[in-house]
Amino acid sequence: QTIIIDEFGGGYENGKTLTSWVRSTISEMLMEAHKKQVQVILVSNISQQHEHILMDLLERRVLNRLGEICPEVYQVRGECRRKSFFGS
Q1: What whole-number distance in Å separates Cα of residue 17 and Cα of residue 33?
Q2: pLDDT in tens, 21-60
Q3: 11 near 53, Cβ under 8 Å?
Q4: What is the reported pTM?
Q5: End-to-end C-alpha distance for the chain, whole angstroms
Q6: DSSP letters along the chain, please?
Q7: Helices 60-69 and 20-35 meet at what angle, rounded to 10?
Q8: Phi, psi of 67 (to 5 degrees)
Q9: Most Cβ neighbours (<10 Å): which of 4, 37, 46, 60?
Q10: Cβ distance 42 to 8 under 8 Å?
């Protein structure tokens, strides 16, 4: 059993405020996965330099267990291959 959460760290209204629904839903989902020992894969644009985003996104009890929930961290680097709206 595996849960994959893509766009982890999304859920901001108007790009500024994290909705309480997103925060509580993500936190509860990760806690249940932790309790049931389900493998979790989080896909995110959040870099390790932006840990403060995780502090806003997750409840403290989940932050304390995040290393157990996701014991491996993989970072992909390189240029974005998506076409830009602005033509760059």
Answers
A1: 26
A2: 888 888 999 999 999 999 999 888 777 677 777 787 888 8
A3: no
A4: 0.71
A5: 41
A6: -EEEETTTT--EETTTEE-HHHHHHHHHHHHHHHHTT-EEEE--S--GGGHHHHHHHS-HHHHHHHHHHS-------S---SPPTT--
A7: 40
A8: -65, -30
A9: 46
A10: yes
